[in-house]
Design brief:
- This protein folds into 2 domains: 4-58 and 302-394, Alpha-Beta Complex (Aspartate Aminotransferase, domain 1), CATH 3.90.1150.10; 60-300, Type I PLP-dependent aspartate aminotransferase-like (Major domain) (Aspartate Aminotransferase, domain 2).
- It starts with a helix and ends with a helix.
- The chain has a 7-stranded mixed β-sheet with strand order 4-12-11-10-7-5-6, sandwiched between helices. Strands 1-2-3-15 form a 4-stranded mixed β-sheet.
- The protein has 12 helices and 17 strands.
- Helix 3 (60-72) runs antiparallel to helix 9 (285-300) and helix 10 packs parallel to helix 12.
- The relative contact order is 0.16.
- With 395 residues, it is an alpha/beta fold.
- It binds pyridoxal-5'-phosphate.
- Pyridoxal-5'-phosphate (PLP) binds next to helix 5.
Length: 395
């Protein structure tokens, strides 16, 4: 039986919200690793808004930062400075390579900016092509979509923006065959998310860097999903010791407050200058205050360590299912970005898990994707593993 609230909201949704999604659950409250629906049912959340609420729901530090900042100053145009944005830029840069940041509002917008950066850099060198990866996902705006290897998302929106080619992920020969004098950049996720939780091979990523250096083109990493501590290092590329020339971020950067960013290395700090790129809401005091609280909390609460430990623990527990169940092919991932690869569409597990009080999602066709908060506890992981075990036993 639906609640009155559910009936009211789903009625409004059906009538007034464009049907680009098909939601069938209504959440009214979140705290830490848990969500509550309109009926008061509690769910262990291993989706975290698709790697957005990396600190768990309504983390008190982020809530406090948003509350305090919203009483002080919410927005001024980027025609003026605000106190928070440059401090956030410094915090982000100190976590990775030296450089400069541009702030936007989403992953797609961060990637659009990063693509513009690469084109601008290549514009006086005769380089304007970008080699992206098959099975990649970079967002739904037109340039990000043109860089997205999952071509089904482009159907109906032709013509595609020109200038993008696609190599096979983890296949250096495929990339070599596509790079030429016109290549401005190679663009990729260090761990593919939507494509099926597929980490780059360590040797491959080193070779990609070498190839870009030899060809004189840029290497762009999209860390919208795998960044901000998700893989056990602040930036996913730090697992590999391979630095890009630019990196994009979004999703977890402000734990649910909308924000995106891309950071370019110091040597490219003047590639985009006054008037060349802009975003009204990019890096507002409010968004920046939330993001500063996120980064400080990751450091203060030692969440990278917890991510590594809990990621290894969850991976080990799940790996036992490869032996136990014929339908489980492989467990893969990095840190707390984990995929359980099945021999059939992974959607079959999502419903039973939901019934049992746990949220998980799919990636690609056959991968069950698990993205718990970075402060997840061992007890919560034990519960999740037991629920997945039960769900697997049923199929
Ligand atoms: C790797 C990657 N890049 C870009 C995006 C697009 O981000 P947004 O939905 O914030 O535009 C996503 C979203 O899932 C993503 O996973």
């Amino acid at each position: 039986m639906n609640t009155e609230l559910y009936d009211k909201i789903s009625g409004l949704q059906a009538k007034y919200v464009m049907p680009t999604y098909a939601p069938n659950m209504l959440f009214v409250k979140g705290e830490g690793s848990y969500l509550w629906d309109d009926e008061g049912n509690k769910f262990l959340d291993f989706v975290t808004g698709i790697s957005v609420c990396n600190l768990g729901h309504c983390h008190p530090n982020v809530t406090k930062a948003i509350q305090e900042q919203s009483e002080k100053l919410v927005h001024v145009s980027n025609l003026y400075m605000n106190e928070q944005q440059p401090q956030l830029a410094e915090k982000l840069v100190k976590q990775g390579f030296d450089g400069v940041a541009f702030f936007a509002n989403s992953g797609a917008e961060a990637n659009e900016g990063m693509i513009k950066f690469a084109r601008k850099w290549g514009s006086d060198k005769g380089k304007n092509e970008i080699v992206a990866m098959n099975a990649s996902f970079h967002g739904r705006t037109l340039a990000a979509l043109a860089a997205t290897g999952r071509s089904q998302y482009r159907v109906g929106f032709s013509p595609d923006m020109p200038g993008f080619k696609f190599a096979d992920y983890n296949d250096i020969e495929s990339l070599k065959a596509l790079i030429n004098d016109k290549t401005a950049a190679v663009m990729m996720e260090p761990v593919q998310g939507e494509g099926g939780v597929m980490p780059a091979d360590a040797e491959y990523l080193k070779q990609v860097r070498e190839l870009c250096d030899e060809a004189g083109c840029l290497l762009l990493f999209d860390e919208v999903q795998c960044g901000i501590g998700r893989t056990g290092t602040f930036f996913a590329y730090q697992n590999y010791g391979v630095e890009p020339d630019a990196v994009s971020l979004a999703k977890a950067i402000a734990n649910g407050y909308p924000m995106g960013a891309f950071i370019v290395k110091r040597e490219y700090e003047k590639t985009l200058t006054v008037g060349m790129h802009a975003s009204t809401f990019g890096g507002t005091p409010l968004a920046s205050a939330a993001a500063c609280a996120v980064i400080d909390t990751i450091v203060e609460e030692n969440l990278l360590d917890n991510t590594k430990k809990m990621g290894a623990y969850l991976t080990e527990k799940l790996s036992a299912f490869v032996e136990k169940y014929d339908c489980v092919q492989e467990v893969r991932g990095l840190g707390l970005m984990i995929g359980v690869v099945l021999d059939q569409p992974a959607g079959v597990l999502v419903g039973p898990l939901k019934e049992a009080g746990m949220l998980a999602l799919t990636a690609g066709e056959t991968v069950l994707r698990l993205l718990p908060p970075l402060n997840v506890t061992q007890d919560q992981i034990d519960t999740a593993v037991e629920l997945i075990d039960n769900a697997l036993a049923e199929i």
